[in-house]
Recover the amino acids of this structure.
């Protein structure tokens, strides 16, 4: 439901009003009847502008669709479902945009998502896509949005605000890494390390794990699910392409006056991007990837995806973990245990990591 | 066509209409000859298939040049500020048409176009400008609203443009739009136009006039409608053909002292305007005489209905001298003389105006523009006695020696007359003037084709002794000169001859009716009118024209009168009477004018109601015409597109006609289906048309589908059917027809409708 209507007088509108007043003065001064008509038309234009835009927005209802997670540098699309409940008045030239302020944090991550509809007829519903390209990772909180129109003449802009809390994760931008190197490193590590059972679609039962979107329904262990109350799937052995831990070592932000906070932030963000790139490349290479960020207590075991469809979800979980990292919390909570160097580990260390290191510097 | 493309076209057209409207207002030929071709070329050069905007450096250079030009023009002629600025806007618009055109640029073009239209309003208030604005305003409304849609589309597309190319390709989300957008947009534009016109009408009627005219010096209504046929000076010696304009100047009704129409009592009335007493032989020019301040008085103002005395009312020996009121309505007056029948006694304006009175010549200059109306009371037959103290001083002597003097003396001698040249007035002055008038009327030829005098030759002498032909100014000048040469006071009077009647029986005076005649002093303070121009020739020249062109002109004149009555001439008096607030002005106008009044309140109401009704019709017609033109333009565009597509298809596929001719069996199938009562939408595809047959007769449906298959092969598969296939199709159609006719014989059920 709309929570408020508002008129905004733009610069164009102010100019219009000024010219209208000038016209009135000119008409009175010169007694030129054509100027009187022009003055009347200008006032008529103002009235029409206010009334029409008001009537258009009065019957407008809008809601925001679910915002899909995006990644920094990639498109994040906010979708709005807009219904014109007016019986007669069509709505023209609608612009949808998110409102800033309050709890909204999206302005720190992206430019305002903006979309438009040229026309919404009476009783009609349209979907409006408002894309934006986030420039950094993080959790974007949305408070609400508004529909604005300056139809018909651009003199008055009227807006109607809708309250619609929402959130979206902006995953880190994946820094380019050498995927083949990652795969070879993981395989080498596998040869050297003690062999674990690799989960997959094989013959030998390994265990159970939680259900992930994309898992085949055939693999759900229904009895175990009934027992635990949560969906779990069977895991079986399969030939493994390798397992890789990505360990991300972030630097704690220095205290106020203790150092260049910006530089540390940039280094940490860079490391997070490299970690994201590693995760993506390793996953594409068929390597089961785990993530460990000791500084903020994140630890997610490598899991061989049971099928290709579950892989994006699995990778998504890891990337979401990276997206949620709050650099201010680094080193303040209980640290997660590090990964044993017995396993294949790619250590991404803030301030020292780069693509070459990430590709080849996989420590056994 | 996308919204942006439509907006670009609409802006281009609207800017052209705005420039055209200003050209109409300015009236000259130079601006349209330059500006309109430049405007027309902008589209193919910038928006054409291989078009592109001019480089920015060129655009900036042109803008700088135009700015420098306008600054120089304004500095040189500051009085032409409106024209200079308006022309500057024209140049800026034209330059910007050759620039890039985003929605914002188009908005700027529209804003400039609006300012140009205002410049046109300040330049002219002619009916043609009104018609041009009638076309321009709906186009402006449509374009401004369309441009908002284009701006929205561009904003949404701009948000996508900031994404990475891969994301843009992945998204590919067009700007949302519901169904029926064009139709609803058109209806919204029409609604907005009607509401804006209604508000404008209310504001136009309700806004008080005369609140504060003249706050800013020099900002006056446009000086159009200048009485070009009339001048308050006479210049002789020009060469060429005297051009005549048929533009109406004013209408006049004459009523007698009892308020009865007296138009029929006069065939021809000389309406005095300016009285020219001084002749400058060097410049061959008659002009008004020098005046002392006490003779002319200070400029003053009159409210509607206020009466101003011009001269003393005279009584005849039989009682009250006949007095006539002339109710004169100018269509579009410029400041200048008041016109009246001699001898004016008093006048009363119908609305507020300023005036300056010359008591010696009994003339009045009015400081009023536009639709000026006033009533004058005259006593044309009043015997003027010496009781009137306002005698003019004796005029300066003219041509007291030389050929004109000698010729005049000879003429008088031949007529048995002689004059004491030192006397101001003699008993024979009237007879002398009549003799000179008669001589000129009969001995000289009237012509509008003039020749220039030789160097050093006076044009009056040239007329009298050399060419012996000329127009009214020569006749009047010659008579005045001859009178003055023998010591008799005479002056040239310029004004109009009222002889043509309009459809309502009132006098209609045109610019071509401008005339010059003579007033000679035949006694102390007694001036008598003499017209030495050949009356038959003048009457022929002033006779109303006949034929198709005259009929068209008459229609145009009525329209112009309507325009002036409703729009240009709408004043405070009209407003007051229309709103019914007070009849004071109407009822008080006749005070002191013998009770006849200028017009009754009910008459004024009727006139105003008619004017407002016609104004509403004009408004509606203007907007309706504009929208009709837009609709016609849309229809024309669609027709052209269809035609082009058909031609392109025909060029691409030369066998199309032959293929379709062989597939004419489909038309037979459609007829058979229609005859069976199976209704379908005209836009239904062939398979949709035959689908309902399955419910009637599955066999017929199968056969019809086979026919459609063959039709598809010919129509869309571009395959020329063999003779065997055509035969088979016709057989199938016959089978369908037979089966359906059997169905038609079956008892009728409910109507079958397929949409």
């Amino acid at each position: 439901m709309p929570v408020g209507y508002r008129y905004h007088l733009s610069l164009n509108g102010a100019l219009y009003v000024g010219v209208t007043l000038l016209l009135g003065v000119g008409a009175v001064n010169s007694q030129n009847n054509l100027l009187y008509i022009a003055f009347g038309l200008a006032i008529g234009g103002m009235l029409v502008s206010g009334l029409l835009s008001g009537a258009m927005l009065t019957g407008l209802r809008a809601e925001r669709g679910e915002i899909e997670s995006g990644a920094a540098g990639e498109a994040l699309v906010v979708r709005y479902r807009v219904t014109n409940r007016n019986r007669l008045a069509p709505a023209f030239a609608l612009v949808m945009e998110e409102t800033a302020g309050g709890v909204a944090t999206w302005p720190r991550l992206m430019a305002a998502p903006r979309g438009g509809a040229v026309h919404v007829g009476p009783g009609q519903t349209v979907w409006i896509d408002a894309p934006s390209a986030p420039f950094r990772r993080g959790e974007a909180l949305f408070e609400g949005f508004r529909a604005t129109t300056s139809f018909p003449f651009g003199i008055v802009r009227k807006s109607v605000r809708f309250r619609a809390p929402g959130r979206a994760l902006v995953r880190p931008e994946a820094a380019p890494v050498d995927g083949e190197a990652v795969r070879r490193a993981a395989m080498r590590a596998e040869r050297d390390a003690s062999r674990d059972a690799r989960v997959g679609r094989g013959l030998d039962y390994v265990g159970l794990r939680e259900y992930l979107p994309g898992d085949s329904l055939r693999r759900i262990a229904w009895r175990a699910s009934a027992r635990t109350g949560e969906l779990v799937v069977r895991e079986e052995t399969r030939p493994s392409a390798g397992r890789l831990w990505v360990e991300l070592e972030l630097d704690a932000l220095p205290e106020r006056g203790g150092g260049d906070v910006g530089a540390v932030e940039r280094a940490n963000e860079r490391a997070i991007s490299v970690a994201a790139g590693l995760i993506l490349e390793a996953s594409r290479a068929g390597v089961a990837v785990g993530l460990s960020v000791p500084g903020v207590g994140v630890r997610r075991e490598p899991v061989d995806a049971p099928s290709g469809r579950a892989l994006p979800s699995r990778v998504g979980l890891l990337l979401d973990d990276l997206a949620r990292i709050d650099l201010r919390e680094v080193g303040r909570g209980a640290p997660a245990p590090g990964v044993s160097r017995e396993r294949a580990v790619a250590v991404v260390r803030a301030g020292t990591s780069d693509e070459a290191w990430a590709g080849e510097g996989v420590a056994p | 066509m996308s919204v942006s493309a439509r907006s670009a076209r609409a802006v281009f057209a609207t800017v052209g209409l705005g420039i055209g409207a200003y050209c109409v207002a300015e009236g000259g030929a130079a601006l349209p000859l330059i500006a309109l071709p430049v405007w027309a070329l902008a589209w193919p050069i910038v928006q054409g298939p291989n078009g592109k905007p001019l480089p920015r450096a060129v655009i900036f250079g042109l803008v700088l040049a135009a700015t420098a030009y306008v600054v120089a023009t304004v500095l040189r002629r500051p009085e032409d500020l409106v024209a200079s600025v308006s022309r500057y806007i024209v140049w800026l618009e034209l330059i910007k048409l050759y620039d890039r055109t985003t929605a914002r640029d188009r908005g700027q073009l529209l804003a400039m176009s609006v300012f140009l239209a205002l410049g046109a309003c300040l330049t002219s208030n002619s009916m043609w400008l009104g018609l041009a604005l009638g076309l321009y305003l709906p186009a402006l409304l449509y374009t401004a609203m369309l441009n908002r849609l284009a701006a929205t589309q561009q904003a949404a597309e701009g948000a996508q443009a900031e994404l990475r190319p891969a994301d843009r390709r992945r998204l590919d989300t067009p700007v949302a739009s519901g169904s029926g957008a064009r139709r609803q947009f058109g209806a919204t534009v029409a609604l907005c136009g009607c509401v804006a016109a209604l508000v404008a009408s209310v504001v136009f009627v309700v806004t008080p006039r005369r609140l504060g005219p003249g706050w800013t010096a020099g900002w006056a209504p446009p000086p159009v409608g200048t009485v070009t046929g009339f001048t308050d000076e006479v210049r002789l010696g020009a060469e060429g053909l005297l051009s005549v304009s048929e533009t109406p100047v004013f209408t006049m009704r004459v009523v007698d002292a009892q308020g009865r129409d007296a138009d029929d009592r006069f065939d021809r009335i000389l309406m005095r305007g300016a009285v020219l007493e001084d002749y400058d032989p060097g410049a061959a020019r008659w002009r008004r005489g020098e005046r002392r301040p006490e003779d002319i008085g200070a400029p003053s103002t009159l409210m509607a209905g206020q009466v101003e005395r011009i001269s003393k009312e005279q009584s005849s020996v039989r009682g009250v001298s006949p007095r006539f009121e002339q109710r004169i309505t100018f269509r579009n007056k410029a400041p200048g003389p008041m016109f009246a029948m001699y001898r004016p006694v008093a006048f009363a304006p119908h609305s507020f105006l300023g005036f300056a009175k010359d008591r010696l010549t009994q003339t009045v200059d009015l400081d009023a523009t536009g639709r000026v109306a006033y009533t004058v009371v005259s006593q044309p037959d009043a015997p003027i006695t010496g009781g009137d103290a306002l005698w003019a001083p004796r005029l300066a002597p003219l041509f007291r020696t030389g050929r004109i003097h000698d010729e005049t003396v000879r003429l008088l001698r031949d007529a048995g007359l002689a004059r004491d040249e030192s006397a101001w007035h003699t008993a024979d002055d009237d007879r002398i003037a009549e003799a000179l008038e008669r001589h000129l009327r009969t001995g000289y030829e009237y012509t509008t084709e003039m020749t220039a005098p030789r160097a050093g030759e006076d044009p009056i002498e040239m007329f009298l002794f050399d060419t012996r032909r000329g127009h009214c100014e020569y006749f009047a000048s010659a008579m005045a000169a001859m009178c003055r040469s023998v010591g008799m006071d005479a002056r040239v009077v310029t004004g109009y001859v009222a002889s043509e009647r309009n459809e309502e029986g009132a006098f209609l005076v045109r610019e071509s009716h401008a005339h010059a005649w003579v007033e000679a002093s035949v006694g102390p303070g007694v001036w008598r009118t003499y017209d030495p121009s050949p009356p038959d020739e003048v009457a022929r020249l002033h006779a109303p024209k006949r034929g198709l062109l005259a009929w068209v002109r008459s229609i145009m004149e009525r329209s112009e009168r309507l325009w002036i009555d409703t729009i240009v001439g709408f004043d405070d008096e009209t407003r007051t009477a229309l709103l019914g607030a007070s009849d004071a002005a109407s009822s008080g106008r006749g005070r002191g004018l013998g009770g006849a009044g200028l017009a009754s309140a009910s008459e004024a109401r009727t006139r105003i109601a008619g004017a407002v009704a016609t104004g509403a019709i004009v408004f509606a017609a203007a907007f309706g015409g504009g929208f009709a033109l837009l609709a016609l333009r849309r229809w024309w565009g669609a027709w052209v597109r269809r035609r082009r597509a058909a031609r392109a298809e025909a060029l691409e596929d030369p066998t199309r006609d032959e293929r379709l001719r062989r597939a004419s069996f489909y038309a037979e199938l459609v007829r058979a289906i229609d005859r069976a009562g199976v209704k379908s939408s005209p836009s239904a595809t062939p398979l949709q048309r035959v689908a309902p047959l399955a419910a009637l007769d599955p066999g017929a449906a199968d056969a019809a589908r086979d026919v459609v298959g063959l039709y598809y092969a010919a129509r869309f598969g571009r395959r020329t059917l063999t003779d065997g296939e055509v035969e088979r199709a016709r057989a199938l159609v016959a089978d369908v027809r037979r089966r359906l006719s059997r169905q038609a014989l079956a008892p009728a059920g409910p109507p079958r409708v397929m949409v």
In short: Confidence is low (pLDDT under 50) at residues 193-197, 353-364 of chain A. The longest helix of chain A spans residues 33-58.
